[in-house]
Specification:
6-stranded parallel beta sheet; two-stranded parallel sheet; 10 helices; globular; binds zinc ion
Length: 348
């Protein structure tokens, strides 16, 4: 288990969900309960090391990185907290219809600029968010280092999560895409073909988008059907299979609400089979456990035993594996769910 204490520092304080300010579920206590449960289960703890953030442009645009690194200080300088805006939150989005084909300019007003990069109202930024965002990337890259030097499987306790972040935008409580960063870092460590298997309850839209035109990284996601009314609503459908050189290297497996272990595990097996057919030489698991039966954020009803068996199925690929933490929001069971998945990975 690779940890970075700064992953606690991000305090979004709230999310604005359908117009309502709620406390939000992506809280620092998530990493506390996962880390303490995994320690109790006997997992080694490896501190993340520091990395040069300039490398992050291999996955994300320099613009969004600079935005994330500076927006809080600029928000304060603009006086927004004094006006009652205690967190950075967008209010206006440059949709395709608004622009009508015209060039998208960068707005002069910071409160308008936020909507260029942030695509929803749930993904707020506070005073120490950047410290946690970059710490999560360091944890992911440290896990890659372990695997590149011969450790068969490494788990990064990344928070905030990442799989909803695209190359140049953030949302869905994600800012930079830790799973994509792990995949790219594996590529640069000599693994020629990398598969990302995303078992978070929600579609890994950011990871899909980042690699959509690439033939060297296969992306697959098992998630609740966006067509049934679930986030991210606009993407995650079965007919999204990649584009140009990446055609055929994306597989979406949307599932009906209430699917439960058997249906979910069949989809995880399909994802694993597809990664094998692709000829993957290394694996990234986007390990969200919010498909669990008690989780408030999805209706997929997977059990802890289901997560253990998913770990088994993915371990059977026999690939060097980096698992990065994505969602999972039911604090009383969160640690045990992650522990079950990692148990399956270790013994499968
Ligand atoms: Zn999720």
């Amino acid at each position: 288990m690779v940890v970075d204490p700064h992953c606690h520092d991000h305090d979004p304080e709230a999310e604005i969900w359908v117009g309502v300010r709620t406390p939000g579920t992506e809280v620092a206590e998530r990493v506390t309960v996962i880390e303490s449960t995994l320690r109790d289960l006997g997992h080694d703890v490896v501190p993340a090391r520091e990395f040069d953030d300039a490398w992050l442009t291999h996955v994300h645009s320099a613009e969004v990185i600079d935005h994330l690194a500076t927006v809080w200080d600029r928000w304060v300088a603009a006086g927004s907290p004094d006006l009652g805006a205690q967190r950075v939150v967008p209010y206006l989005f440059p949709s395709a219809e608004l622009l009508h084909g015209l060039r998208r300019r960068l707005p002069t007003a910071l409160h308008a600029e936020v909507g260029v990069y942030c695509y929803d109202t749930m993904t707020l930024i506070g005073p120490a968010s950047w410290r946690a965002i970059r710490a999560a990337t360091h944890a992911a890259r440290s896990a890659v280092d372990l695997v590149a030097s011969g450790t068969p499987t490494a788990y990064a306790l990344t928070r905030p999560p990442g799989h909803h972040a695209t190359r140049s935008s953030y949302g869905g409580s994600c800012y930079l895409n830790n799973a994509a960063i792990a995949a790219q870092a594996l590529r640069e460590n000599g693994f020629t073909r990398v598969a990302v298997i995303d078992i978070d309850a929600h579609h890994g839209n950011g990871t899909q988008a980042i690699f959509y035109e690439r033939s060297d990284v296969f992306t697959t996601s098992v998630h609740v059907d966006p067509g049934a009314g679930w986030f991210p609503h606009y993407v995650g459908f079965a007919d999204e299979t990649g584009r140009d050189a990446g055609l055929g290297t994306n597989l979406n497996l949307p599932l009906a609400p209430g699917s439960g272990d058997q249906t979910w595990l069949s989809a995880v097996q399909r994802a694993a089979d597809a990664a094998s057919t692709f000829g993957a030489t290394a694996l990234v698991i986007a390990l969200g456990v919010d498909a669990a039966v008690d989780d408030p954020e999805s209706p997929l009803e997977v059990t802890a035993d289901g997560y253990r068996r998913a770990g088994d199925a993915l371990a059977a690929l026999g690939l060097p594996t980096v698992a990065v933490q994505e969602g999972g929001y039911h604090l009383p069971t969160l640690g045990r769910l992650v522990g079950s998945a990692l148990e399956g990975l270790a013994t499968g």
